[in-house]
Specification:
CATH class: Alpha Beta
CATH architecture: Alpha-Beta Barrel
Radius of gyration: 19 Å
Bound molecules: coproporphyrinogen III
Shape: globular
Order of helices and strands: HHHHEHEEHHEHHHEHEHEHEHHEH
Mean pLDDT: 96
Strand order of the largest sheet: 1-4-5-6-7-8-9
Strand content: 5-15%
Helix content: 40-55%
Number of domains: 1
Low-confidence stretches: none
Number of helices: 16
Length: 348
């Protein structure tokens, strides 16, 4: 199952880009690149039974991580798992209901939180480390593997809401009414997430991404306290052990705050969502590598509209350190031919 027959003589393009090299044809990968748009994924997924069974089966998780690399030879793989594995590992009940997305038993008090523990998470995390180890045996040295976690604000929001939300109502109300309780949740997540990212890098992940999908819609003081400070603390702890493993931060929907986020979190690269304007993204490139921002719906639509936007993105961002990606995860009904066309356009 080894994809790469020989060891590369030069550093993989993806890692070079994260460390500050610009490429005319930038390295590329797609968020959620292992997923339901691939027939081979749907096959393994049905074999596994449930999504969580797939996440917690190292052999099958490694297999689906490798699928998009075999098919498209992307410049990076990302370990197949989910950001909600962290609260689940801490002891919170989690289910993925078919067609509905995740459901957790909400944490709304310190008493609820006291039932969770970072110590307890270690045995679940080790399943993911084993999946990373198996994936790397399949990838060889040619294609680097990305490890990841959700950022404390996004994961805490799911923990408090119990499911996805359009206005973060329960999470914000808890944060405003009982700041100590909310802070205790964030602190536990900082500790667990830093440990988890360090464990993934120990297992061989060569870059790490922190997904803050719900980073939009926070007032500036709350953005500081819930997004910047916890992320900065995780980056600091991971860097103390793995100073050379680049970290990509993805504060989705927060482009007006990019400069502050970059300056204060210490991330090496900035993941940019679809709504972030190209000049705002480009303005960050003197400080960090940037990644993103093609609309997943343009990839679904394909054709000239997609080509025009991809070319505009390349023109604006490829002269400086850049990793091609979507602005959010690939959609399950995306045609394979559109992905193939995208790859031809980006690779030139
Ligand atoms: C918010 C969030 C989640 N998970 C994640 C985020 C942050 C990024 C984002 O905003 O999308 C991150 C995530 N989820 C998944 C990965 C794997 C790595 C990758 O390919 O990028 C990663 C990095 C697999 C997954 N996570 C999930 C799937 C679909 C599961 C299936 O096969 O049915 C996959 C491939 C399930 C999931 N997981 C989550 C939701 C809301 C859902 C249901 C929605 C959906 O079904 O698409 C929580």
């Amino acid at each position: 199952m080894n994809i790469a027959a020989e060891t590369p003589k030069t550093e993989p393009k993806f890692l070079a880009a994260l460390k500050g090299t610009a490429h005319k044809a930038p390295p590329m990968w797609l968020m959620r690149q292992a997923g339901r748009y691939l027939a081979e994924y749907r096959e393994v997924r049905s074999q596994a039974g449930s999504f969580l069974n797939l996440c917690y089966n190292p052999e099958l998780a490694a297999e689906v991580t490798l699928q998009p690399i075999r098919r498209f030879d992307f410049d990076a793989a990302i370990i197949f798992s989910d950001i909600l594995v962290v609260p689940h590992a801490l002891g919170q009940h989690l289910e993925f209901r078919e067609g509905e997305g995740p459901h957790l038993d909400p944490i709304t008090s310190l008493a609820d939180l006291s039932k969770l523990s970072v110590e307890k998470a270690k045995s679940t995390f080790s399943i993911v480390y084993e999946a990373i180890d198996r994936t790397i045996s399949g990838l060889g040295d040619r294609t680097p593997l990305i490890g990841f976690c959700g950022a404390p604000w996004t994961v805490a929001s799911y923990m408090v809401e119990g499911h996805g939300s359009s206005d973060y109502r329960a999470a914000k109300l808890l944060a405003y009414r009982e700041p100590e309780t909310f802070k205790a949740i964030l602190d536990m997540l900082v500790e667990a997430s830093a440990m988890y990212l360090i464990g993934q890098a120990n297992a061989g992940a060569r870059a790490l991404q922190i997904f803050d999908s719900w980073a939009s819609a926070l007032a500036d003081n709350d953005f500081d306290a819930f997004v910047i400070e916890p992320t900065a603390e995780i980056v600091k702890r991971v860097k103390a052990v793995h100073p050379n493993v680049p970290i990509i931060g993805f504060p989705r929907g927060a482009s007006p705050k990019y400069a502050d986020y970059v300056a204060r979190t210490g991330v090496d690269a900035l993941g940019c969502d679809t709504a972030a304007p190209l000049p705002t993204i480009a303005a960050q490139q003197d400080k960090v590598t940037v990644q993103g921002n093609l609309d997943p719906l343009l990839l679904l639509a394909g054709g000239d509209a997609m080509d025009r936007r991809v070319n505009a993105i390349l023109e604006a961002l490829a002269p400086k350190p850049y990793v091609f990606n979507l602005g959010h995860g690939i959609l399950p009904d995306t045609p394979i031919e559109h992905v193939e066309r995208l790859i031809r356009t980006v690779r030139g």
